[in-house]
Amino acid sequence: MAPADHSYDYVVVGAGPAGCLLANRLSADPGCRVLLLEAGGRDNYPWIHIPVGYLYCIGNPRTDWCFKTEAQPGLDGRSLGYPRGKVLGGCSSINGMIYMRGQARDYDHWAEQGNPGWAWNDVLPLFKASENHFGGASELHGNAGEWRVERQRYSWAILDAFREAAAQSGIASIDDFNGGDNQGCGYFQVNQRSGVRWNAAKAFLRPVRHRPNLTVLTGVEVDKVLLDNGRASAVQARWQGSEQRYQARREIILCAGAVGSPGILQRSGIGPRPLLERLGIPVLHELPGVGGNLQDHLQLRLIYKVSNVRTLNQVANTHWGKLGMGLRYLYDRSGPLAMAPSQLGAFVRSHPEQPTPNLQYHVQPLSLDRFGEPLHRFAAFTASVCNLRPLSRGRVDIRSANPGDAPVIDPNYLSEPEDLRVAAQAIRLTRQIVQAPALAAFAPVEYLPGAALNTEEQLQQAAGQIGTTIFHPVGTCRMGNGPLDVVDAQLRVHGVAGLRIADASIMPQITSGNTCSPTLMIGEKAAQLILKAAPAASNSSGKTALATP
What we know:
This protein is an alpha/beta fold. 25% of the residues lie in helices and 21% in strands. The chain contains 14 helices and 24 strands.
């Protein structure tokens, strides 16, 4: 049950990566009462913890919001599934577990845009602070934090051959993508502990679940932030079928993600005037940029049939293969069930004019027509490649004032000519790698999009037909000081005291890689900023009645 006293020092909305970390850091002061609200349930679903279980978590309403995009003109009018975590740990409970920081250039660019304190040299210590790296402490890595990073526990001959083919194509083999320059090809490091998914709830909530000043409530869907004389004073939510208000004496921090945070602001009357007036929501504070600047990584899934080598397609399509996978995982937590969705990665330039790598590969020893459908019956691998710095921009807006209505998600994929040009370059580069001598023994044959497509027009059209999201939405509450920016460099919402945002929505530009660990870093930065601004001595009294992650 919720405590009778609904007043806290800090109310954190959303128990994704940043929210879990913030709850941990802020509640370290025993005199400070912290409330963490999560709309989803507890992370006690077994498939969350078995790495290959992402197949049963994405698209499952128990763990996923199951959003859909609007029909995308750039994708032949297709609407895509848009998974977002609906469970403690948020997307870290259903994602690909890849530990990736991005490039130093990403963060230096944020700082150059008027966001002091966000350059690479500023954020590297924040990454290290939460990190528990298998290699121990070093100039680039930390080992005293909670966010476990390990090597993968299984390999495939076809992936080793792809890595060698990449080297033969001028893409050097490297062991670590997280030093600031991720150019090269290698196996991803993953957020696992001994072959089990390591999500943000395990890392940051479970170790502090007995703190009497930390309350974690699940099944609480936040509707809006309430303002008192222009200051954020409380959140209005529904919990166990009734309306609740949770007061914040110091601050409210939104950590609901690039889809959730702009929606809460808009329902609160904070956002673009035309949208709010059209939906009949009083405009309490006009912020035109709320919901805009949506960016995502669109992956192009190239599939190659192969011979003379084993892939997961053969293993998983037989009764004995499935039994063997299960027994192997029970024995030592390895084998295919311990696999991240993608094992091998590469970062390359689509063209020499690019200053740093602008393409990322996720290479998998499997193939399927669409996510959620059965694996193909033939041996194959998939080389998914995405443009790390798309120019296309979209929006996330509420559909109505009712928090139960799914949002309008319009990524606007491939709407910029440059993104189409890079997509065609990516397909050509993939073909070049696959034609290298290291893969010749496996006789790769292009199944998708098809080797007959060669002209620029054909390749751009193919990109629209095979492109799909890799689940990295960011940017909808952009950080900066321009007219369309939503938060400042301290993560404070412009013009609204007592309200901050700490999640992927604040990214001015998307990072050059997977976005989970950069979001954790944003949470770490937010914790430092909030604690620095806190009163020297706590003025709160009493303790919460329950702390139950």
